[in-house]
Each structure stands twice: as C-alpha cells, then as structure tokens.
C-alpha cells in the first residue's frame, strides 16, 4: 500500500504544530499526528517504489518528529516537518536522496552531505587532476534546469596541499557536494508532486554514476572494491 499525494490537512497540521510547539499541545493532538505520520510514511514508500524502478535502494528512513535539544539553543521539542532519506544499495553506489516536507519550505536534496575525510580527499584529488567531466554533468541543461547550481559548505581558502590558484579551486574548496530543489505548498499538494520528485531524482543519476566511479577507484582508475 502506498500514497501518491501529500494532503492539505497534513501541511495544515504542521503549521499548527509550529505555532504550538510544546508537549501539552502535542500530547492532546497525538492521535492526529499519528494519522498524518502514517499517511506521510505511505508517501515516502511511494517515493522509494519509484526510485527502485531506476536505482537500487537499500534503506528508507523517515525521521522521528522529536528533536534532540541537548546541545541546541532552540528547545522546542518537535520538528515542524516530516523528513526522510533513501540510501542507495551496495558499496558501488554512492550518494543518497532526501525529502523534507514543511509548509513553505519543502525541498528535495541529493548528493554527498557529509563525506568522510578519505572520500573528500579523493573527490578533491579527482577535481585537481581533471574537473571537466564533473563540470560537463552539472552544467548540462536539463540537469541545471532541475537542480540549479552545486551547493554545500566550502572552506574559505585552498584545502591543505592544494594550489589556491588552481583553475578548479572553487570546486575543490567544497566540503559538501549537494544539490537542492525547493517546492511551493501548491506544488507539494499537486497530484504530480510524486512524479516531479521522481523525475528530479532520475536527473541526478549521471552525477551519482560519476561520483561512484571516482569513489570506488584510485587515482589510476583501478577498482578499490572486490
């Protein structure tokens, strides 16, 4: 069983939660929350079903509504959004997919949010040698129309061991290699939203294929996996 739409009532509930972000209100409305959560999980399952038609997904995770406030200045106990991620299967498939549903701030994201230091160095070394394939993919017209420009945190100057005058230094400086697409509430509630999300995720595939190739080989192009 799956769901192909995000309902107006779900966005309305999240708005109410944001305006009443306290335990008393949430406890009183927990049954309503559970009903919306069940429907959203069905929608995320539909996203995964579609992904598995053109990729292989190992794991879907819909995140808990409860916030970890231990180290945060913001002590509100709940997230006023639903969010979930989809992990690709196998060591040869790198990258992941993410969807957050929040009134006025819904977005999908893909790419490499927090690469470990070995992966980050490998990506930077590849860009140092030759960034032409990377640029060709992210500047392709349908890709750019869907995802816009590369996003993510970057260091202010050249990473240690890299030339600050290198022609690809803007790319090399990145610590994250992600793409984000935002949606209006009207788009989220549209019957086409599920399809648009899937078509967007399909468009990222050449990027994932390139990055997976980079991260599973050494600088000589030799495979690092069995």
Termini separation comes to 37 Å
Strand portion = 5-15%
- Can you tell me the number of structural domains? 1
CATH class: Alpha Beta
CATH fold node name: BirA Bifunctional Protein, domain 2
* Radius of gyration, whole Å: 20 Å
What is the number of beta strands? 5
Spatial order of the strands forming the largest sheet:
1-2-3-4-5
pLDDT averaged residue by residue: 96
Sheet with most strands? 5 strands, antiparallel
**Count of DSSP helices?**
10
Shape designation: globular
Parts with pLDDT < 50 across at least 5 consecutive residues? none
The CATH architecture: 2-Layer Sandwich
Overall helicity: 40-55%
Summing up helix and strand content along with how strands pair, one would put the structural category as alpha+beta
Which features would summarize this protein structure in a list?
226 residues; BirA Bifunctional Protein, domain 2; alpha+beta; UCP028451; 10 helices; five-stranded antiparallel β-sheet
């Amino acid at each position: 069983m799956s769901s192909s739409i995000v309902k107006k009532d779900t966005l309305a509930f999240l708005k109410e939660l944001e305006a009443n972000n306290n335990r008393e209100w949430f406890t009183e409305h927990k049954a309503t929350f559970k009903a919306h959560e069940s429907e959203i999980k069905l929608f995320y399952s539909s996203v995964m079903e579609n992904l598995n038609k053109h990729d292989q997904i190992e794991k879907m995770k819909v995140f808990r509504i409860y916030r970890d406030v231990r180290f945060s200045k913001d002590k509100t106990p709940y997230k006023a959004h639903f969010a979930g991620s989809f992990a690709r299967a196998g060591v040869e498939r790198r990258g992941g997919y993410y969807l957050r549903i929040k009134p006025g701030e819904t977005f999908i994201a893909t790419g490499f949010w927090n690469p470990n230091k070995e992966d980050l160095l490998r990506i930077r070394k590849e860009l140092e040698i030759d960034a032409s394939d990377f640029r060709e993919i992210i500047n392709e017209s349908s890709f750019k129309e869907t995802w816009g420009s590369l996003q993510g945190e970057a260091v202010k100057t050249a990473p240690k061991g890299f030339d600050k005058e290198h022609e690809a230094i803007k790319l090399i400086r990145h610590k994250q290699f992600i793409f984000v697409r935002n949606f209006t509430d009207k788009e989220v509630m549209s019957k086409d939203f599920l399809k648009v999300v899937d078509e967007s995720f399909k468009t990222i595939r050449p990027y994932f294929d390139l990055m997976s190739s980079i991260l599973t080989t050494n600088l000589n192009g030799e495979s690092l996996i069995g």
